[in-house]
Specification:
There is one protein chain. By secondary structure, the chain is mainly beta. 0% of the residues lie in helices and 60% in strands.
Length: 136
């Protein structure tokens, strides 16, 4: 099928290989195995990944665009929750990320070439810090 079957990482701290298994009927990734650990993938009817392993969750909109992503183990609050917003042409215009520590990160995309990120650290309802960054 032309899909990657394995990826070998060679590093000073240790080497490992990731092996990829695909569904032969649907040509979608079923799991990745690293050593003795397997990470399974669950897909929706369109082939979009909706769960990776037990803690990484994805949601997609009607046009198969990523709508949200969160990392959540068991019944705990998500350690990270991201939402993605799109314009009428289908271009991503905003990414909002909330972390478990209460911090928020907002990234605005303009024409695919301009990216502005603001990090908002919330310490209490009346005390916060804003750290804007700009990337071209």
């Amino acid at each position: 099928m032309g899909n990657i079957q394995g990826l070998q990482h060679i590093a000073t701290g240790g080497n490992f290989t990731r092996n990829f298994q695909y569904s032969p009927e649907k040509n979608i990734l079923e799991d990745i195995t690293t050593g003795q650990t397997a990470y399974g993938f669950i897909h929706d009817v369109n082939g979009n990944i909706i769960r990776e392993g037990e803690s990484r969750h994805f949601a997609w909109d009607y046009a198969d665009r990523l709508k949200s992503f969160h990392v959540q183990a068991g019944g705990d609050d998500p350690s990270q929750h991201a939402q993605y917003l799109y314009d009428s042409g289908g271009n991503r215009v905003k990414k909002l990320v909330r972390k478990q520590d209460g911090s928020f990160k907002s990234t605005t995309y303009i024409d695919g070439i301009f990216e502005h990120t603001s990090l908002l650290l919330v310490f209490s309802p009346t005390n916060f810090q804003l750290h804007p960054t700009l990337q071209l």
